[in-house]
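Progress against Task 2.4 (sequence-to-structure conversion) is shown through the following example record, which the project officer requested during the mid-term review.
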Amino acid sequence: MFEENLVENFDLKNQEVEEEAYKIFEENFIHEKKVFPYKITKREIFVAMLDVTDAQTKMKIKLKVKRRVVPVKMTEDDFYLLTNKYFGVGSGMLYQTTENVQLGREEFNLEDKEESAEIIKFVNRVILDAYKRGSTDIHMEPLKNDIILRYRIDGVLHNIQMPAAIKNVFAAVVSRIKIMADLDIAEKRLPQDGRIKIKVGEKEQDLRVSILPTINGEGIVIRILANQKSEMTLEKLGMETEILNKFRELIHKPNGIVLVTGPTGSGKTTTLFSAIKEINDYSKKIITIEDPVEYQLDGVSQIQVKPDIGLTFAQGLRAILRQDPDIILVGEIRDKETAEIAIRASLTGHLVFATLHTNDSVSAVTRLIDMGIEPYLITSSLIGVLAQRLVRVICPYCKTEKILDNGEVTYFGKGCDFCFETGYKGRTSIHELFLIDNYSKKDILNEKSNFEIKNNLKAKGWKDLKDDGMLKIEKGITTYEEILRVAW
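Structure tokens generated for the chain above:
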């Protein structure tokens, strides 16, 4: 008889897994029976189980290892994380469903492949796994003799283990993704872009697909677009109170240009749409022009740029001005023509939001001048520039205190299963806000350098990205290494 009087719960966070325990069993058995042997001694084997009352499975394990079975209760999530970590994503595609994931074109099948059903399950599993881990991008990269799967989580790429057999059917995986994205499966020489709409539980999710032919085959990147409209608020962006209050004043101005700057993937669009969401009280006409449309907001007219038919940012802006808008959002100011129209709009009573690719807030002025915009037009229209970066947050599950030689206390993440051994979980923003006051206008009109403008701002107590980052280090939110990575 098995001793089951006191069945413990499996502690995924702290429990070490011994390879010799689970390697005794075939993968198929582990997936089929939903068990995971994780520790073995001379007399006992410890087995995490979904159903600890499954006497038949316990008997099979006992007969195989000739040891007493100690069952430990685990959850579906525990099993999912364990099998993904030790066998690879999609390793159990023959034995596991994709948990309520519905893909828009599921009626299509790869009829010319025997393993097509497995391919469908594998692709669904990868998408679900990436989604659950909070990934923004899925990378499938063919090498000469291998296939690499990587997820971008919190801005950093992580290698994800895959079943070795997938390299033999990768062409079918590419074809499956092309079918889902409504792309040409026969075209293997040219890049292709498409979109997929999926449903995870009750949540709809948009995916953007990019196929790129390389010398080793077609590489795939799937961008998981954030659709969490209800969660977009300025309070959740990580702004310090002083910056938040001043930024709020800017977005409630009746006219002028407000710019958000930073590199690709720094959260500029999220910030702008959080601002739009706050001021959208249905008493104002709000129109956006974007490339692509990432967030869809109720009560906002949104335009997708289509350069192939002549609908550029500049062309779209001209049309928007004939629609009697109060507030305009421009996805990105890329050229002089777009900048001039945006400035003209702000000078005729419109509030204009836009993004710009610069390293800091003050550099936005230099960028506009480099485009050919006169300084007097900048000082007449620009009212503020918010620069930002995304930094990783210390994982709350493995957050550890460290006392430095000088007695100061700092924090870091040791690494655990919840943060995939990185020490970080989630991201927040660091910011600097450049308000165009009378002093700054004089500096701009006198064509002072960025360095001089910053020094004048610093003399008045202005805080830049590094200062905001150091404040978040002091609060135990992030680490010095993260601030060094993004702001120095």
